[in-house]
Write a structure and sequence with these properties.
This protein is mainly alpha-helical. The protein contains 3 helices and no strands. The protein has a domain of about 45 residues. The termini are far apart.
Length: about 80
């Protein structure tokens, strides 16, 4: 019986929304914030809040990663609209 070959997953687009979320994660680690939209600023502040809680040992690394994913999902779905 012949083995099936796994189909290669396509690479994510280099300028997609996930790429922007990665850039915002990097911005969240910096002291100075550039000019950001309201939605992006809410995401960056959420990531900073999660990082602070992790650094204070209030949450473990797994919980910090889970919260980061939740922030990213909300950002990508256009969350925090008033």
């Amino acid at each position: 019986m012949a083995k099936r070959k796994k189909k290669a997953e396509p690479a994510p687009p280099p300028h997609g929304p996930n790429q922007r979320a990665k850039e915002l994660n990097h911005i969240a680690c910096q002291k100075e914030l550039p000019e950001l939209s309201e939605n992006e600023l809410a995401y960056v502040n959420g990531i900073r809040w999660t990082l602070r809680r992790y650094q204070r040992h209030e949450i473990c690394a797994n919980q910090a990663r889970a919260e980061q994913r939740l922030w990213q999902i909300a950002y990508l779905q256009g969350g925090w609209k008033k």
